[in-house]
Amino acid sequence: MIPDKVVARIAARAAKEALATHTDTSIAHAKLAGPRASATVGSGTARLGLTLDLPYPADLAGVSRRLQDYVSERVAHLTGMRVTEVTLAIEHLIPAEGLEHRRVQ
User: Fold this and answer.
1) Distances (CA, A) of 101 to 27, 69, 96, 98
2) CATH 3.30.300.20 applies to domain 4-97
3) Which one of 44, 52, 85, 105 has the fewest CB atoms closer than 10 angstroms to its CB?
4) Using one digit for the tens of pLDDT, what is the confidence trace for 78-97?
5) pTM across the whole model
6) Record's superkingdom (predicted)?
């Protein structure tokens, strides 16, 4: 059996890959903290938890779904485990460059 810690590292790496391909590659992307992951492994299955920053503005629901799907598929492929759950905790929304200086008029 693959240890929880190893599966968590694979999930964090997969989340980083997904963020690079499924989000806007603007200046905000460089400011994103690396995703953190946790995993609970048992009897050939894995439950994953991800904590991450996302760029803003973005379609948060769409980005979240694509991220969950990608991480689930990638972890399943690399470990041979069935991923039963991928939960996301969005810690920060990182604005694209220049947004913090705009005002609503």
Assistant:
1) 15, 35, 11, 6
2) yes
3) 105
4) 999 999 999 999 998 888 66
5) 0.84
6) Bacteria
